[in-house]
């Protein structure tokens, strides 16, 4: 069976270059399936709808949707900028919800009854970090926790066997901290140097585990931290 994976992103042309580079690396390595980058500003609903329209035209539709995009701004509750708060809501909450809705509609119109929607959440969606620059971000991730359970309930009410799952990692060594602390690269680097962090492959393995569960098994949430992480 040919598997098509699609990457969507919302940032700069640098990210664009990296995604195309990754696609080329997968092809040259001889991996099965095809990785197809698609540029999409997830803070813009029109872009998201255009992406799903292109998927329908080129690949029939979506069977598995993994909502992976997320961001944080260093904006405390007492002094943060409204635009930054709104940006976190737009990407972490609204874009996830729009992609979920469109993925479900794609499955429904093609009578796909064994699909899966996976939200890459955060441990920040389960406990509040005692750091002012994380509080609003954690609020958006608490929303993801609630949205995933709400989605599970609605899928049951719709009498489908489509599954909904959260994967909630702690600290993962990616570019996340450098974007979060973009004015203080030393602080960002210290986040990853203080402990042995999770790697992107660890999250991918969790996704594979969730997708490979027997059809009657509903995995609600996978919470995972580095062993050395305290909070």
From TrEMBL:
Key words of the record: Oxidoreductase
Provenance organism: Hucho hucho (huchen)
Family label: Belongs to the short-chain dehydrogenases/reductases (SDR) family.
Pathway(s) of this molecule: Steroid biosynthesis; estrogen biosynthesis
InterPro entries for the chain: NAD(P)-bd_dom_sf, SDR_fam
Domain of life, source organism: Eukaryota
Protein name: Dehydrogenase/reductase SDR family member 11
UniProt catalytic activity: 17beta-estradiol + NAD(+) = estrone + NADH + H(+); 17beta-estradiol + NADP(+) = estrone + NADPH + H(+); a 3beta-hydroxysteroid + NADP(+) = a 3-oxosteroid + NADPH + H(+)
Family matches, as PANTHER family: DEHYDROGENASE/REDUCTASE SDR FAMILY MEMBER 11 (PTHR43115), DEHYDROGENASE_REDUCTASE SDR FAMILY MEMBER 11 (PTHR43115:SF4)
Function: Catalyzes the conversion of the 17-keto group of estrone, 4- and 5-androstenes and 5-alpha-androstanes into their 17-beta-hydroxyl metabolites and the conversion of the 3-keto group of 3-, 3,17- and 3,20- diketosteroids into their 3-hydroxyl metabolites. Exhibits reductive 3-beta-hydroxysteroid dehydrogenase activity toward 5-beta-androstanes, 5-beta-pregnanes, 4-pregnenes and bile acids. May also reduce endogenous and exogenous alpha-dicarbonyl compounds and xenobiotic alicyclic ketones.
The keyword Oxidoreductase is assigned to this record: yes
GO molecular function annotation: 3-beta-hydroxysteroid 3-dehydrogenase (NADP+) activity; estradiol 17-beta-dehydrogenase [NAD(P)+] activity
Enzyme Commission (EC) number: 1.1.1.270, 1.1.1.62
Uppermost EC category: oxidoreductase
């Amino acid at each position: 069976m040919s598997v098509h994976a699609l990457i969507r992103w919302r940032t700069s042309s640098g990210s664009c270059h990296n995604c195309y580079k990754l696609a080329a690396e997968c092809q040259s390595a001889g991996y099965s399936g095809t990785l197809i980058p698609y540029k999409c500003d997830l803070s813009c609903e029109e872009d998201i709808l255009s992406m799903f329209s292109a998927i329908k035209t080129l690949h029939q539709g979506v069977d598995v949707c993994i909502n992976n995009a997320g961001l944080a701004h260093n904006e405390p509750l007492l002094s943060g900028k409204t635009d930054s708060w709104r940006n976190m809501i737009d990407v972490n909450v609204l874009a996830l919800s729009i992609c979920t809705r469109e993925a479900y509609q794609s499955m429904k119109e093609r009578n796909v009854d064994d699909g899966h929607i996976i939200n890459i959440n955060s441990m920040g969606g389960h406990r509040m970090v005692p750091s002012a620059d994380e509080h609003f971000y954690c609020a958006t991730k608490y929303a993801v926790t609630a949205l995933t359970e709400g989605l599970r309930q609605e899928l049951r009410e719709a009498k489908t066997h489509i599954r909904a799952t959260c994967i909630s990692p702690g600290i993962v060594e990616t570019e996340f901290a450098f974007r979060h602390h973009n004015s203080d690269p030393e602080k960002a680097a210290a986040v990853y140097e203080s402990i042995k962090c999770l790697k992107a492959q660890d999250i991918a393995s969790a996704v594979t585990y969730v997708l490979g569960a027997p059809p009657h098994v509903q995995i609600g949430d996978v919470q995972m931290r580095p062993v050395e992480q305290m909070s």
